[in-house]
């Protein structure tokens, strides 16, 4: 991500009030619950669903796939747009499970900031660390929310120290918890000198705020027991002495993260976090492209596809491309150039999302995420512009770590299987390889749970039971180099060669020895584990 130049024009008010961000965390830290509460406070839904609630209440709005609802995990990134106070939020809920990390990595190319959710008892976990590294590569500003303070949590200083040590990131407390577990009463808002008290009776009710004139205000004693108040005063004094104060520029540079404490399931601390991302989060930022950087203040409309989702509506065989707008004011019915094919596209029915619900978007601004229903024309990485041949960079595709052959339950339906696999490959849900020798398909994924998801979706969406079987290959590498050298390499290694769904050559390996042999015998050929999806 590029810095906004000091001489950049002022952003139009509609663009300046956009906040486009993702929520990242380890599975089970409470990310989807937090997303639901964001929607509740944004007025987008009347009652927040809980991932582990009973009956109909458990249908969380951001988990719309059947498998997500059955297993209580997020499998696919989903986008939601809604107003909150003076801002317009575009929130992307990402899968926390490491088996779906590629979807998450790509989603992080489309946002301007991230909220990192940490479990108060577990602290920084492995997947949080991985996702944080991706944010760091992109210099994304990060706001931290320490969740589940109403359960037994670790010492507040210990949590902050772990974040600073593990992630090499300065942390500035925006709020400070009062008690923890059963004794958790709420938080002291260190930025606004306010006492925020938690209402345990109603999980969907907003917490009560009490204005204070500093920690020495005598009114504090009417709300907080003496022992907890003494601890609070001592800890806040230490925090102000030992921890960095809030520095807005350091946060925008990705070097400092303000941290809020709360309990998403009890709707506590969420509104303060939302106000924080609104007040301190960045407006739409400059986007890198191959020939030049694109500023959000530019008048021509530009955008790129960062995700394709098929069959969001099971009644219609639809495919929706999620497009992040990078500049301009888009209006429904506009004709945009599809840079990869060079053809114009009339965008007649663009949609804004509220998880699985959607409505026609009459217009949208830089920073917004819109959905464009299409029949397979749009792929991940595609650019849409008002004529300029731009190619947005940095949208990754990773080599799969697990490979299996896929066979249809009914051999007569091989053609249907090919269609389903191609669709999922274009969605980015899996890699599909057609071996040069023999029949059948090899499917590659990042984590084993994805095989279950694919089998479940192919059966649900195409009525086609499939089985996955082991293959002799253990990894796949994209092949690059001079055209004539690639042709000679492909001819000499037919037993190892396949094509991905774009028709690009892929070298299938059994052992590390295969990769070493290519490096030794073919110095002009490069094998890579990632492919930049700039098409």
Give a concise summary.
The protein is an alpha+beta fold and 535 residues long. 26% of the residues lie in helices and 30% in strands.
Main sheet record: 8 strands, antiparallel
How big is the Rg?
A: 25 Å
- How many angstroms does the end-to-end distance come to? 20 Å
Average pLDDT value?
A: 82
Structural class: alpha+beta
Based on Cα principal axes, name the global outline. Answer: globular
Q: What is the assembly state of the chains in this entry?
A: single chain
Tell me what portion of residues adopts beta-strand conformation: 25-35%
Low-confidence regions: 47-65, 67-77, 96-100
| Physical arrangement of strands within the biggest beta sheet | 28-25-27-26-30-31-29-32
Helix content: 25-40%
């Amino acid at each position: 991500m590029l810095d906004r130049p000091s001489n950049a024009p002022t952003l139009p008010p509609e663009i300046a009030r956009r906040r486009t961000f993702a929520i990242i965390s380890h599975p089970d830290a409470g990310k989807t619950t937090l997303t639901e509460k964001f929607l509740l406070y944004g007025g987008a839904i009347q009652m927040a669903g809980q991932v582990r609630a009973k009956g109909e209440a458990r249908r969380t709005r951001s988990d719309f796939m059947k498998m997500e609802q059955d297993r209580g995990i997020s499998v696919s990134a989903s986008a939601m747009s809604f107003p909150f106070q003076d801002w317009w939020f575009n929130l992307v809920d990402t899968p926390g499970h490491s088996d779906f990390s590629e979807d998450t990595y790509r989603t992080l190319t489309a946002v301007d900031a991230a909220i990192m959710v940490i479990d108060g008892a577990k602290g920084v976990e492995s997947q949080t660390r991985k996702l944080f590294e991706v944010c760091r590569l992109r210099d994304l500003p990060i706001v931290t929310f320490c969740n589940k303070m109403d359960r037994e949590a670790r010492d507040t200083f210990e949590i902050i120290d772990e974040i600073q040590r593990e992630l090499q990131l300065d942390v500035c407390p925006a709020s400070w918890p009062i008690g923890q577990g059963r004794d958790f009463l709420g938080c002291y808002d260190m930025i606004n000198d306010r006492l925020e008290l938690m209402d345990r009776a109603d999980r969907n009710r907003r917490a009560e705020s009490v204005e204070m004139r500093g920690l020495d205000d005598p009114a504090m004693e009417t709300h907080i027991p003496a022992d907890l108040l003494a601890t609070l005063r001592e800890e806040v004094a230490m925090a102000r002495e030992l921890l960095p104060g809030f520095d807005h520029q350091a946060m925008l540079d990705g070097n400092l993260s303000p941290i809020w404490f709360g309990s998403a399931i009890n709707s506590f601390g969420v509104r303060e976090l939302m106000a924080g991302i609104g007040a301190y989060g960045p407006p739409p930022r400059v986007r890198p492209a191959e020939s030049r950087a694109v500023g959000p203040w530019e008048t021509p409309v530009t955008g790129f596809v960062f995700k394709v989702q098929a069959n969001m509506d099971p009644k219609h065989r639809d495919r929706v491309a999620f497009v992040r707008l990078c500049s301009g004011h888009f209006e429904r019915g506009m004709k945009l150039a599809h840079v990869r094919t060079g053809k114009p596209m009339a965008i007649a029915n663009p949609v804004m999302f509220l998880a699985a619900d959607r409505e026609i978007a009459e217009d949208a601004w830089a920073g917004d995420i819109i959905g464009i229903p299409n029949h397979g024309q749009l792929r991940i990485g595609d650019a849409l512009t008002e004529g300029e041949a731009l190619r947005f960079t940095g949208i990754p595709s990773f080599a799969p770590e697990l490979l299996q052959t896929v066979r249809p339950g009914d051999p007569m339906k091989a053609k249907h299987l090919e269609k389903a696999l191609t669709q999922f490959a274009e969605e980015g849900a899996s890699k599909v390889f057609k071996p040069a020798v023999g029949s059948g398909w090899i499917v590659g994924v990042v984590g084993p749970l994805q095989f279950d998801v694919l089998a479940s979706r192919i059966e649900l969406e195409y009525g086609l039971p499939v089985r996955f079987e082991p293959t002799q290959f253990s990894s796949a590498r994209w092949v690059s180099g001079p055209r004539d050298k690639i042709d000679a390499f492909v001819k000499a290694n037919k037993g190892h060669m396949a094509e991905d769904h774009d028709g690009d050559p892929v070298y299938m390996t059994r052992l590390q020895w295969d990769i070493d042999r290519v490096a030794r015998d073919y110095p002009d050929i490069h094998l890579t584990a990632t492919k930049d999806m700039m098409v």
